[in-house]
Specification:
The chain is 43% helix and 15% strand. It is an alpha+beta fold. The strands form two sheets. Strands 1-4-5-6-7 form a five-stranded antiparallel sheet, with no helix packed on it. Helix 1 packs across helix 2.
Length: 343
């Protein structure tokens, strides 16, 4: 097999290159090339904008009878992306740019035309100065006058800006420092004022508390006096159940009323003399010890200590303990008093 990539071709000994026919192509023939739009343009037919860098399959041809310094000028044909209208532009080697020929207008063309016009004016002036030396003097005087006017206008604008906005940086710094000092002083004064108010409120509260305590001390403290029993042995005989009970009313108080209230019946009842209290010496001998004013016979028995009758109350009161303490004895005494009244 022969090589796939041949570097050297075989030329027979009788090869004559002059006998090879040459292909004759027209000079204005067109090639299909792939290019990008060199500038922004707008279609005249539909108004579609075609931006720089958009790719097209264009036809290229060489412009006949147009050459710049031996460089050929090429023309390109493209179609609008919206209406398929034909747009043509060609190269401009003199300005290293492109020129639109047909079917579209170049964007920002006015600025480009203005620059070209200024360049043309400058070129005409230079050509005129070369042929007329007096023209050079006139142009110089015009330029100097124009420059003086521009400087005067600039100076006026500067003065106007200074009058309107006169910025003094040192004054600004001083004002800022003064503002900082005032702010710090204000903060210190506020802190002192707040602390003073807190101290005053605390002092007032303390004074109020002291006044309340003084008033409490000045008030008489009513202390309950401890109930001292009449006899040391009464504590043993006390019944806590009877401490909260109200004293029982006597039978004549329920029927007739109190002696002090009704003067008519005050003479009907004669009170007997109270018995003498037992001394400590008599307690040792065995005298009867009773609670204060028992109200029933059973209570008298519960609260009394039974002793020999000969040594007990006959010596002191002349009555038996049962008759002196029970309600029956009181009724008997009431009947005796009625008999004495009748006599």
């Amino acid at each position: 097999m022969s090589e796939r990539k041949v570097l050297n071709k075989y030329y027979p000994p009788d090869f004559d290159p002059s006998k090879i026919p040459k292909l004759k192509l027209p000079k204005d023939r067109q090639y299909v090339v792939r290019l990008m739009a060199p500038f922004n343009m707008r279609c005249k037919t539909c108004g579609e904008y075609i931006y720089k860098g958009k790719k097209f399959n264009a036809r290229k041809e060489t412009v006949q009878n147009e050459v710049y310094l031996g460089l050929p000028i090429f023309r390109f044909y493209i179609k609008c992306t919206r209406c398929l209208a034909e747009i043509t532009f060609k190269t401009d080697p003199e300005k290293t740019d492109y020129v639109v020929e047909h079917g579209a207008t170049r964007n920002f063309q006015a600025e480009k035309l203005l620059e070209e016009q200024e360049k043309q004016i400058q070129k005409d002036r230079e050509e005129e100065e070369l042929n007329n030396p007096m023209k050079i003097l006139e142009n110089r005087t015009k330029d100097s006058k124009m420059e003086m006017e521009v400087l005067e206008n600039l100076q006026e604008l500067k003065e106007l800006n200074q009058r309107q906005a006169n910025v003094d940086f040192e004054g600004m710094l001083q004002e800022y420092q003064k503002y900082e000092e005032d702010l710090k002083r204000q903060q210190v004064e506020d802190d002192e004022r707040e602390m003073k108010s807190m101290l005053e409120s605390a002092q007032v509260k303390r004074i109020l508390d002291d006044s309340d305590s003084d008033e409490e001390l000045q008030k008489p403290q009513c202390k309950k006096k401890p109930q001292v029993p009449a006899k040391p042995t009464d504590i043993l005989n006390e019944n806590p159940a009877h401490q909260n009970e109200k004293p029982k009313r006597e039978s004549w108080e329920r029927s007739v009323g109190k002696l002090s209230g009704n003067l008519q019946f005050s003479g009907l009842v004669v009170k007997k003399a109270p018995c003498a209290k037992a001394d400590s010496t008599t307690l040792k001998k065995g005298i009867i010890v009773q609670k204060d004013s028992p109200t029933s016979f059973g209570a008298a028995k519960q609260n009394a200590v039974t002793l020999p009758v000969s040594e007990a109350l006959p010596a002191q009161c002349g009555q038996t303990p049962a008759a002196s303490s029970s309600s029956l004895s009181l009724l008997g005494a009431y009947s005796d008093s009625e008999e004495s009244q009748s006599d």
